[in-house]
Each structure stands twice: as structure tokens, then as C-alpha cells.
Amino acid sequence: MIECRNLTREYVRGDNTIRPLDDLSLSVEQGTFLALMGPSGSGKTTLLNLIAGIDRPSSGALMVQDEDITQLSRRRLAAWRSSHVGYVFQLYNLVPVLTAYENVELPLLLHPLSRAERHRRVSSALDLVGIADRHDHYPRQLSGGQEQRVAIARAIVTNPTIILADEPTGDLDRPAATAVMQLFQALHRELNRTLIMVTHDPTTAGYADRTLHLEKGRLVPIEALGVQSPNEPTSGEVVP
Description:
Elements: E1 2-13, E2 16-28, E3 33-37, H1 44-52, E4 59-64, E5 67-68, H2 74-84, E6 85-88, H3 100-105, H4 115-128, H5 144-156, E7 162-166, H6 174-191, E8 194-198, H7 202-205, E9 210-215, E10 218-220, H8 222-225
Parallel strand pairs: 3-8, 3-9, 6-7, 7-8
Antiparallel strand pairs: 1-2, 1-4, 4-5, 9-10
Helix pairs in contact: 4-5, 5-6
């Protein structure tokens, strides 16, 4: 479904050239739950933003369902992104003056839908993430875990092809993080969407089907790191 071919992303800062991604190639099949791990600056978020169409590579191709999104105009890319990508941020990025319902409804305002259809989709998304009873609450009235559930509902309300999550548990305590990851896992199974998540936490990565590691903009085989994949349980251990 997603194929990255020799992706490179460079930035020039003064006399220095920074390369967060360096000739990276990657294939992700439809319905995969993929975790991306690696130290800060390894290119994880850069790769996520390229797949989301938020950023463009300096070179290489990025195919999503056989369409090279690097060749789309800004207008076509924005339309593609609103239809195909749901993005979950670490710090939720909810609009503080809007209720949970209104925050989830926001992406739908870009689509030619009736008010009744928007209401149906928002109510369904809030119910799916278990936050329907907080639909009229503002972000300040919600816990961190509840805010992230609203953010997840906003990401899935357009029925996107791809769900992307950048450190979705990074600002949560362990019980809230566990609840959010169990929700992601359930949504992945129920909706059969492709889900790509950036995380520093091996426990969080363990909820994914597959984990890849990045170092200095390149994919590194886990064997080379001398650690066990978080998706492979140790003897007697069951990964959630």
C-alpha cells in the first residue's frame, strides 16, 4: 500500500546540510500496524510527515496505493491528505475553544457532507473511542487520556486510508497510555486500517504487528542493535 523508494530529506542550515532521511526504502502492506523506533533525530517524525503529505522529500518517490504523492500539486496534495490521512499528535492539538464534538467535526467541514451526515460520523467516532459521554466537554475539562481519545476520534472520523500517530502516549501516564494503545489495537483490528506509529517506548511498540528502527535516517535491522523486537515476546511473556 505504501512504498518509499530511496527517500532523502535534506535541510540547509547555514553552512550545514542536515539529512534526517538518507536514501530510505520501505514497503508497508495494507492493514499493517507498524511502529517506528529510534533515538531523537533519527528521522522517524520526518518519515511520518512525508507519508502524511505534510512535507516533501528532497529526492525519491513515495507511492500510496500506486500514486506518487510527491508529484501532486499543493492543492491536490491537500485534498488527498484530507481524504486519506488521519494524524494523531503527541500533544493532542485540540482547539481549546471547541467542544470534543466540534473538534472531531473539524476535518469533515472540508468535505461536501450534510449536517446530518457530519453528526452521524462524529457520533460514531466518539462512540468508537469511548468518549461519547464527553461530547460537550471542552479540552480543559478532559484528562490527558480523554483528550487523546478525542484526537483519535478526529483522526478516524473521515474514514482515512492511513492513520499516523506521532508519540501518541508520550504525554500520558502508564494506565492512560495502556488504555490508548488498547484502543489503537482495537481500531486497527476493527477498521483494518494501515497504522504507522512513532514511539520511543518498547512497551508501546509491542502493540504493533511490526517494529522498524531508524538510525541517522536509515533503517537498521533489529539484529544489528543487539536487542529483542518488542513484537516478539520473551519466554512466558505475552505481548498485548
